[in-house]
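Section 5.1 Outputs to date
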Amino acid sequence: MNRKASNMIAFIFLSLVATLCTKAAVRKRELEKKSGSIIYITPLNIYVSFNDTKGIKAGDTLFIERLGIATPAITVKYESSSSVAGPVIGKPSLRVGERVFAMVIQTARPSRQTPVAGHEVDTLLAKESTQSTPITVTTTTDSTTVIPGVYGAFTANSLSNFSNYPGASGIERWNYNFSLNADRIYGSRFSFSNYMYLSYLGTQWKQVMASPFTQLRVYNMALSFKTRDVKLWAGRYVNNDISGVGPIDGLQAEERFGNLTAGEIAGSRPGFYSLGYRPNLIQFGGFISDSDTMGAGLMRNTLCVLQENDGSNTDRRFIYFQHTSNPITNVDIYASGEIDIFKLHDGRPMNDFSLTNLYFSAAYFPLNLISLNLSYDAQRNVIYYQSFGPTIDSLLESENQLRNDLRFETDLRPFTNTFIAFGGGYSFQQGDISPTRDANISLTESGIPLLEISTTLSYSRIISDYLDGTVFGVTVSKYIPINSTDITVEYSKLNYAFDNGALTMIQTQPSAQITTRLIGNIFLNLYYQGTYSGPNSYGMFMGGVTERF
C-alpha cells in the first residue's frame, strides 16, 4: 500500500475515532429535525418561523438542505416562543419562504408547522434594536454560558446524470460531507469545530486513493479556547470580525478591552482553487474592532491589515474594513471592503492604494408587514503577484475592470399566511455593450386550509447584451409529522433568447424532493430533476443518507 493511500485510510480512521470519542463525552441523545420557514431577511439577521422553538436556543445552528447536502446557514441569536432570528453563516443564497431546520433533543412527537404571529416578529425586531449587534455577540459572552455538548452529521450521497442527447454518457458523482462540533469539551473552555466535503466522479476513485487530499475540501477545522475577554483559535477558522477575508490556517488570538477588541493572525491561507493546506502562502496581520453607540442604536467597526506571501516574496498586502450599525430605529446598515496597498510595477515593489472590492447594504423594516433592502457590490479580481505568475498581465490589462452590481428587494406580508417578495438588479462593467438587468417576483401562501401545504409562484426575467430570458416556477411543499417527512414538488419553465433572438431555448424543469427519517437519527433524502427541451431530455437523480448526532 502506497503512502498516499495510507494517509487516506488514516484520515478516515481518525475522523471515526474523533466521532466516537466526542460522542462518549456526553450522554446519548435522540434528535428531532424541526423545520421552519424564513419570513424576513435583513443585512444583519434572518427571521425564521417555527411551530414552536422548544429545544432551540441562542448559539444553535439552523441548516438548509439542497441536493441532499445539509449546510449551516443561520446562527440563532434571538428566540421567542415560535420564531428565532440570527446572522447568516457564510454567503448562502437565502430567500423568504425557504425551509430551514434545526436538530434538537427529541422531547415529543413533532407537530405540524404553522406561521408565526406578527407580534412575535415585533418582539425579535425589538430585541435586535436594543441588544448588541450580531457581530459582537460572541465578544460579550462568557464561554461558561455555552452548554457543553457534541453534535454533527455525516452525509453520503450519489448523484447521477443521464440524457438522450446523441453521444451523451451518464455521469455519476459521489459526495460525502462531515461536520463535528464539540462545545466546552468535558466542561472545559476548549471547543472544536470541523466541516469538510469530499466529491469525486465515479471514474476517479483510483486517483482519489492515490491522492486523497486533492478532492477534499476542508472549510473549517479549529480548536478554540475562550474566556470572557480572551479567545484563541488553532487550525482553519473564519473570524466573524473579518469574515470577508475567508478561512485562515494557523493561530488567531483576540482580547477585549472594554469596547475595543484587538486581534492577531499568524499562519497561511488555503490554496486558491483547492482549499488545500499551503504553508508557503504565509499570512499574518492584525485587526482592531470598536463597539459604540450611533444615533438610536449601536455600531461596530473593524479595521484589519494583512500581509500575504508566497514563500519569502510579497504576494498581496491589503486593508480590510467592516461596519455594522442600526443608527435609526428599524434601519440596519452593513458595509465592508478591501483596499490593496501593494503592487508590482515592471517587477519592482511599490506602495499602492487601490479599491479591490466594496459592499454596502441597508435594510428598513418599519412594520412586521414590510421590509426594504438595498445593496451595492463593486469588485475587481484579487491579484496575487507571485501565485498568479504569467497570468498577471492579462488580469491587469483586460480582465480587472470594476464590476458594479446594484440590487433591491422588498418583502410584504399583507396577510398572516401570505408573503410577497419582489426585487431586481442592475449590473455593469466597463467594456460591456449594455448593462445586465434582472427582476423577480414571488407569491407564497403558507398553511393552505384543508391541504396544509405551502405554495409559491415565482417569475423572473434577465436581460443582458447577449441574453433575454424568463423563468416561471411553481413550488408546493408539505410537512408530514410521521417520520419528520418533508415533500417538495417544483415545476419551472425557462424561455431564453440569445443574440437578439437569433437562437432561442425553451426548457421545462420538473423536480421533486423527499426527506424522511429512516430510523433514529438517520435520514433518507431523494431528489430528481428533469430538463426537457424539444425532443431532448436531461435528468438528474440523487439519493443519500444522513446521520446526525
